[in-house]
Amino acid sequence: MLGCAGGVTRPSSKVGQTPSYTASLPNSPVGPLSVVVRDGAVVKLDWAVVDGVSDLVSTEAIAQLAQYFAGERQVFDLPLAPQVSAFQLKFGAALRAIPFGETRTYGDLARDLGVPAQAIGQACGGNTIPIIIPCHRVLGATTLGGFSGAGGVEAKVQLLRHEGAASLLI
Fold it and tell me: Is the CB of residue 57 less than 8 Å from the CB of residue 40?
């Protein structure tokens, strides 16, 4: 285990809960980011610097985020375990299938998954690992839609510009 900014010497956990590990990227283009890892898989991405103990997966997740923002990575290769419903897991797989620099509409995904577009919007809002599970690539038919990360739609626009999808915003 590697220590992070806070100098904590053991992983955080509650009685009966699996320990969690964190690592942070304090200066990303969309603000400070941290990942939380449990049982060897990323379970959450937060818009904050979180002090704690890192492990190999949390350190690798931050390295991959830094590569993404440096233009050196388009696909994340990390074990993911978002704590969400079965539908949201299926939805997350559909999001990860959207290529870097491309977008889909809520309606496109609703049609593909056989659910109402509102369910897609709710699933986007419930995404616990934004950027890595790229909900920013989902747009309304005539609007940007929302974004669950800190910074809201402005962060979404910044991520889409980073990916070269900004022409879709005009």
Answer: yes
Exposed (0-12), middle (13-18) or buried (19+): which is 57, by Cβ within 10 Å?
buried
The values of phi and psi at residue 134, to 5°, are -80, 70
Query: DSSP letter at 157?
Result: H
The matching CATH number, chosen from 3.40.50, 3.30.160, 3.40.1350, 3.30.2310, for 2-69 is 3.30.160
Q: How many residues does the structure list for the chain?
A: 170
Residue type (1 letter), 38? R
Q: List active site positions.
A: 135
* Predicted confidence (pLDDT) per residue in 91-148, tens digit: 999 999 999 999 999 999 999 999 998 899 999 999 999 999 999 999 988 888 888 7
Closest-CA residue to 54 (of 13, 97, 9): 9
Q: Which two three-digit tokens encode residue 10? A: 């053991």
